[in-house]
Amino acid sequence: MGHRKQSAPRRGSLAFLPRGRARRLVPRVKFWPDYKGEPRPLGFLAYKAGVTSVYYVDTTPNSPTQGTEVQKLATILSAPPVIVAGIVLYKDEGGKLVELTKIWSKNIPPEINRKVVGLKPNEDEKLKRIDELRKEVSEVRLIIASQPKLVRLPKKKPDILEVKVGGDDVQKCLDYALSKLGKELLPSEVFREGEFVDVIAVTTGLGFQGVVKRYGVKILPRKSRKTKRGVGAIGPWKPPYVMYTIPRSGQMGFHRRTEFNKRVLKLESDGVKLTPKSGFHKFGILRSNAIVLEGSVPGTPKRPIVLRVAARPPAHQEPPRITLIQV
Question: Is the pLDDT of residue 2 over 70?
Answer without folding.
Answer: no
